[in-house]
Design a protein that fits this description.
alpha/beta, six-stranded antiparallel sheet, six-stranded mixed sheet
């Protein structure tokens, strides 16, 4: 679960640290006090898209840090292991720093990670359901992924099989379409490929020749300098005109030491070293002589070398960054020419493979369709049960599927990487109303309850430890508010729940209650958070009930609500 959230310079919050508890954590306060800023901050630390406007006025950057207990969260632990993130006593600390330029730095346990990694970790740790999420719930595009997730292993394996076969089928169909068009297109393509093959083949490139040619060009361009250096070095070592060659000096020194070498072992060793130096110098001198004799400058060789390098450069500009790349391109051209010259046989073979994949894909899509239908039936039953608990016992919920195609040919363009199904959630909130798409629901209270029902079911499918509800109680009151509060209380028995609310019924159900307040000093506006004690909780429940805190009867009613909520839990 989320243990601590630290917020620095986010919107109106200069600095804030909240330590959350298990069960149901309620955040309440006046409208506009800054409650949703806290949810936005949590969204940032779990990898949500950042907004420059979130950076406050207390500096050029904002920072959020979330400390999570990941014990038992197998998904988060697996991601941490995948990226080499060391675990520290079962804790994972996620940090996000955002500049006013929109750039952000993400860290996990002090190790810099990409935003995509942060998002993967965040998705495994916390699930945020905002007050505007009804709109995404109304979008039929979100319905099929929900069914696939609910369907578990059976639908998951079918989705993967369809996606893999569809990818193979599209690759094969694209190959047939792009490489094997009509006969005229094939002839044009072959002419072009033959030109490329002839140009590369005529060059007779060798893998390492460019380095050799560059070295040869350097020697030719510096021929006079090389010749002068070798001559001068040879003279200094072996053939100085004034008799002061190095080898002569060493020979003279050697002769002197020959006369005293018997007087001391150290002299004897030095004499042998001088002998060795003499022979080494003699060998170097002979090498210099031979190299000088073998080296010669030929302008034609330099011209030919430069021409060859220019030709290689042209081929590299056209066909690859290196000679190896050019030769690899040449091999692919030869292969494609061979395929086009034998296109009739290859086309027949590929069309047969394509037809086989199309048939396989259709069968897999039908299997996926059946798995989704079975999952949809179970989901409908559970949603109806949830809606009954939420006071919509008269509501009807169903999932509509388009009629599946009867053959691979009929499937045609309907088939994609997720199959050919078209799915939409339907609802009839009241007796006598026809089933209609969720998007046609007008009541905010009904939309809130339907979303809570679906999220309750889906949340049980994974090990996400923290569920965040940002004012999902919109449009609720009275008995329904009491039922929703009990539903949140039940959910909080198995995982941590963070809920921003204006309802006293939900506030009374809190295991931990935070009051968010906004104030100013005539120059600045500040947002503060207070963890309420028993008396503070009663006062806030009374305020949410619509009366002043000092009214005895309202406070008595607030105490009764809290007592009943505790008894329910």
């Amino acid at each position: 679960m989320l243990l601590r959230l630290s917020i620095h310079n986010i919107a109106l919050i200069e600095s804030m640290e909240i330590e959350f508890g298990g069960g149901l954590n309620v955040l309440s306060g006046e409208t506009g006090a800054g409650k949703s800023i806290i949810v936005d901050a949590l969204g940032l630390v779990r990898g949500d898209k950042s907004q420059r406007l979130l950076v406050g006025s207390a500096g050029d950057s904002a920072r959020v840090e979330g400390v999570f207990d990941v014990t038992g969260n197998t998904t988060a632990e697996s991601i941490m292991q995948e990226y080499g993130l060391e675990e520290s006593e079962g804790l994972l600390i996620l940090t996000r720093e955002i500049g006013k330029n929109g750039r952000s730095i993400c860290r996990a346990n002090a190790q810099t990670v990409t935003l995509s990694v942060l998002r993967r970790l965040g998705d495994a740790l916390a699930d945020i359901h905002g007050q505007h999420e009804h709109q995404s719930l109304f979008d039929p595009q979100t319905h099929m992924p929900m069914i696939d997730r609910f369907g578990g292993r059976e639908t998951g394996e079918s989705v993967q099989a369809v996606a893999q076969t569809y990818r193979q089928y599209k690759e094969l169909a694209t190959r047939l379409e792009t490489k094997f068009g009509d006969e005229g297109e094939r002839e044009k393509r072959m002419d072009f490929l033959r030109f490329q093959a002839q140009e590369i083949g005529a060059a007779q490139l060798q893998p390492d020749e460019e380095e050799t040619l560059i070295s040869l060009r350097k020697r030719m361009e510096n021929a006079q300098r090389i010749t002068d250096t070798m001559t001068e070095a040879y003279d200094l070592i072996y053939d100085a005109a004034d008799g002061r060659a190095a080898i002569a000096a060493v020979d003279s020194a050697f002769s002197k030491f020959e006369q005293i070498r018997a007087l001391d072992p150290d002299y004897d060793q030095l004499t042998e070293k001088l002998r060795g130096v003499y022979y080494t110098l003699e060998e170097i001198a002979f090498d210099l002589r031979d190299m000088r004799a073998a080296f010669s400058f030929d302008p034609q060789i330099l011209e030919e070398t430069q021409a060859r390098l220019d030709r290689i450069a042209r081929l590299k500009r056209r066909y690859g960054a290196t000679i190896k790349d050019v030769l690899s391109f040449y091999d692919s051209v030869i292969q494609e020419i061979d395929e086009l010259e034998n296109s009739a046989e290859i086309i027949a073979k590929l069309e047969k493979e394509c037809a086989g994949l199309k048939e396989t894909l259709f069968k897999q899509c039908m299997a996926l369709h059946r798995a989704r239908k079975a999952a949809a039936k179970r989901l409908c039953q559970q949603v109806r049960a949830q809606l009954t608990e939420l006071g919509l016992e008269k509501a009807r919920f169903d999932i509509a599927f388009d009629t599946p195609p009867g053959s691979p040919e009929e499937a045609g363009e309907r088939t994609g990487p997720k199959g050919f199904d078209r799915i939409e959630f339907l609802i009839s909130p009241n007796v006598g109303q026809d089933l209609m798409p969720l998007s046609r629901i007008v009541s905010g209270g009904e939309a809130s309850r339907i979303m809570l029902a679906l999220k309750t079911i889906v949340a049980e499918l994974d090990d996400v430890g923290t569920l965040v509800f940002d004012e999902i109680d919109t449009g609720l009151s009275g008995r329904i508010a009491h039922i929703v509060a009990q539903k949140l209380g039940r959910i909080a028995l198995g995982r941590q729940v963070l809920c921003i609310t204006h309802l006293p019924q939900i506030a009374a159900m809190a295991d931990t209650h935070f009051l968010i307040e906004k104030s100013d000093d005539s120059k600045k506006t500040f947002v503060s958070v207070e963890r309420l004690g028993p008396d503070g909780e009663i006062g806030e429940i009374a305020r949410l009930s619509g009366a002043g805190r000092d009214r005895t009867a309202v406070k008595a009613h607030a105490r009764q609500m809290k007592t009943e909520a505790d008894a329910f839990k």
